[in-house]
Amino acid sequence: MKGEDLFTIAEMLKRPVFHRARLAAGERGIHRPVGWVHVLEIIHVSPFVSRNDLILTTGLWLKRYEEERFEYMKQLFSQGAAGLCVEFGTTVDAVPDEILEWAEGHDFPVIVFEQPVRFVEITQDIHSLLINRHHLLLQNLESFSRKLQQETLRSSDMSAILRLLYDYVSRPVVYISSINASRFVPSVDTALAEKLGEIYGREVEGRMSTDREDHLLFRLNGHTSVLFQPVVCFGQIFSAVGILLNGEQPGEAVPLLLDYTAKAAATLVLRTQFLEERLLRNQNELIQELMNRQISSEEQAQTRMGLRLLAKGEYLFMAGIFEVESLDKEAGQVRREAIHQDILVLLRSLLKKHNLHSLLMMKGNHCYLLCAKESITARSLTNLRTVLSNIVQHLNRYAEEELSGVRIHAGFGKSRGRMLETDLSLHEAYQVIETARCVARMKDRLFYDELGIYQLLKAVPGTPFLAAFVEDHLGTLITYDQEHQMQLLDTLDMYFQCHGSKKDTADKLYIHRQTLYNRLVKITEIIGTDLLTPDKRHCLEMALLAHRMLQSEGN
User: Fold this and answer.
1) How far is it, in rounded angstroms, from Cα 377 to Cα 393?
2) Is 357 helix (H, G, I), strand (E, B) or coil?
3) Per-residue confidence in pLDDT tens, the chain, 555 aa
4) Would you give the distance in Å from CA 546 to the centre of its chain?
5) Among residues 104, 154, 162, 515, which one has the fewest Cβ atoms lying within 10 Å of its Cβ?
C-alpha cells in the first residue's frame, strides 16, 4: 500500500498545526509511528499510555523533583509512546537539558511549542487524518481481500497471489515451503534465498505449537529483516509467506495483508494436496499387489514406486498401518469418509515434508503405508523411526485437537531391504496395533521390534492353543482366584516382576510381608512346585502374559 498506512512523527511535523513547533531532541526517532494523540498532565502515566501514542502536555510534571521527571519519561518510553509535545508559556518556559539529553540518547522525540497553542486543534487535525487513513486502509484491505479471493477461485497458482501481495505492499515477497517449491517476487539472489530457507526451517517450521499464528519478524542483517506468517494446514506448518523490510516498521496494514495471503496460500496448498491425492490413487493398485504378492520382480516394484535404482547401497523399506477409530457411533458414513480423506492428505503432506518416498492406500478405516529411505549410514534406520514417531505424534495431536471422537492407532513392521516383503511388514504392523490396544504396558509401542515376547505370543497360530497353554499352567490358580478373590494372579505377576524379592513385592502391592508369605504358600500349594525353578518360572511368566492378552482381546 505504498506505506501510506504508517503515519510518522516526521510526517506529523509537516502538518500546518505544527508550523510553530520545534524538534528539541530525538531526531533519530522521527520515523516512529503515531497512532493517536492525547493530553496527559498527571505524573503516573503508564496506565493511560498505549503504544504509538503522542502525548501533549503543558509540562506540569517538570515542576516535580528531578527523579520524578525522569520517571515520567521512562514511563512514556517503556509504554512505547511515539513522542512528547511540550507547550511553553503556560506552566514552563523550558525543558531541562538533562531531560533532552536523556531523550536524545533514547531516540525519543521531544517537540516543543515556543508559544501557547490550542491542543484541541492539534488533536482534531491528527485524529481526523488518522481516522481517514484508517478508513482508506480498510477500503484497501477489502479490495485486496476481494482480489485475493478472485485469484484463488481462478487458479491454484501460488505466484499469482504473491504478485498481488507485492503490488499492494511494494516490497519483495517470499514463499518458503517444505512440501512445494519456494518462490520469490521479484527473484532474489541464491545466498539470500538460502538464508531465508534456513530461518524458515529453524525458526518457523520447527514450531510445535500453532496456537499462536502471529507474524514472526527476523533480522537478516543491519538493515534488512523478514516478516513471516506461517501457512497452517490441518494444524501443521508446511510453509510461510514473508515480506522483506528494509529497516522500516511494518505498520498496521502489512501484517493484515500477510495474514490474508497466508490463509489464501493455505487454501491453495490444501487444494493442491487433494488434487495430488486423486492423481496418486494408482498407488492403491501397487500396494494391493504387494500385499497379495502379485509382483515377482524387486526391480519392477521399485521402479513403479518411482525409486532410482542404486548402484551401491540399498533402501530401507518399512510398512505401517494407521487405524482410524471412530468413537462417535452415530457419525454418518459421509463424515467418516471426509475424516479419512483429511487424515490421508495430512499424512501424505507430513511424509513429503520429511522427504520420505512413500506409497499410501486408504481402505475402510485403515491407511496402509510403505516408505523407503536410502540406507546411507548406520543411523539411517534410527532416523527413519524418529521421523515416523514424529508423524504419529502430529497425527494424534491433530485428531485430539481438530477431530471430535476420533482416535488413531499406528504400528510399523520390521524394516526390510526388499519391497516384495511388504506383506510381512504389514502383518507385523497390525500385530503392533493389536498388542498396544490389549496390553496396557505396550500402549505406546509403535514398532514390531519393541514387542519383545509378544512377537512370539502374537505369532502363535490360533487363540485355542494359547488358551490351552494358559489352562495347563494357570488354570487351577485362575479358578481358585475367581472363587476366593485372593488376588493370587496379581501377586504371582508382581513377584516375578520383582525378581523373587519378597520385600519389593510386598511394597509394590501395599500389603504386609506376612500376607505375602501366606499368598505365596497358597500359590505353591495350588501350582504344586517351586515357583522360581527356571523352567517353571518361564512357563508361568509366559502363561501370565498370554492370559492378560487373551483377557483384553476378549473384552
Assistant:
1) 25
2) strand
3) 444 557 888 888 888 888 888 888 888 888 888 888 888 888 788 888 888 888 888 888 788 777 788 888 888 888 888 888 888 888 888 888 888 898 889 999 988 888 888 888 888 888 888 887 777 777 777 888 888 888 877 777 788 889 888 888 888 899 988 777 888 988 888 888 888 888 888 888 766 444 445 678 888 877 788 889 888 887 778 888 988 888 666 667 788 888 888 888 888 888 877 766 665 666 778 888 898 899 888 888 888 888 877 655 588 899 999 999 888 777 777 778 888 888 888 888 888 888 888 888 888 889 999 999 888 777 888 999 999 999 999 899 888 888 878 889 999 999 998 899 999 999 999 889 888 887 777 888 899 888 877 777 666 655 676 777 777 777 888 888 888 888 888 888 888 788 888 888 888 888 888 888 888 888 888 887 777 777 677 777 778 777 777 776 655
4) 40
5) 154
Q: Which residue has the cell 512523527?
A: 9
> Cα–Cα–Cα angle for 368, 370, 371, nearest 5°?
140
> All 3 cell numbers of residue 139?
477500503
C-alpha to C-alpha distances, 9 to 13, 29, 233, 245, 331, nearest whole angstrom: 6, 8, 40, 20, 59
